[in-house]
Amino acid sequence: RGMALGYTLIPPAKDKLHETKTNLLEKISVMMGGRAAEQIIFDEVTTGAANDFDQATNIAKAMVIEYGMSDLGPINYGPTMDVTEWGKSYFEQSSVSQEMMAKIDSEVKKIITSCFDRAVDIIKTKKNLLDKTAEELIKKEGLDGDEFVKIVGKKEKTS
């Protein structure tokens, strides 16, 4: 754990080459879980979720800018990479207008806010499982995936 008091690690799925929009949104919701729990349990927030916010924001930005997974449509708004005749690559900066940048920021915020709201709902409805997990973490300081599943059960399939 190092100097961190806690952190969120999502292990990569085996043999997963492409991410679905649903899976990316679930990852962001997981990243928002720490802050949601702070607000619900302690009615206070800390700096502890900063790295989670960074990761969540990067995923949301990629969804909007690179993957076309927002209401802005299937367009890549990011910089393009090209290779020169000497084999060196360079980035050509995107020529996105200030107006479009504001729309991109709005879409990223909408994704993050929606996932945060989902995390809050999950924490509120599954607080008993959060309490059990906290008790185990106090005893052991860490849980692996199998130990966590023993406490909370297997993930419910979403359709």
Automatic annotation (TrEMBL):
UniProt key word Cell cycle: yes
Molecular function GO terms recorded: ATP binding; ATP-dependent peptidase activity; metalloendopeptidase activity
Pfam families: Peptidase_M41
GO cellular component: plasma membrane
Lineage: superkingdom: Bacteria
Swiss-Prot/TrEMBL keywords: Cell cycle, Cell division
Gene Ontology BP, a term: protein catabolic process
Boundaries of every Peptidase M41 domain copy: 1-151
PANTHER family xrefs: ATP-DEPENDENT ZINC METALLOPROTEASE YME1L1, METALLOPROTEASE M41 FTSH
Protein name: Cell division protein FtsH
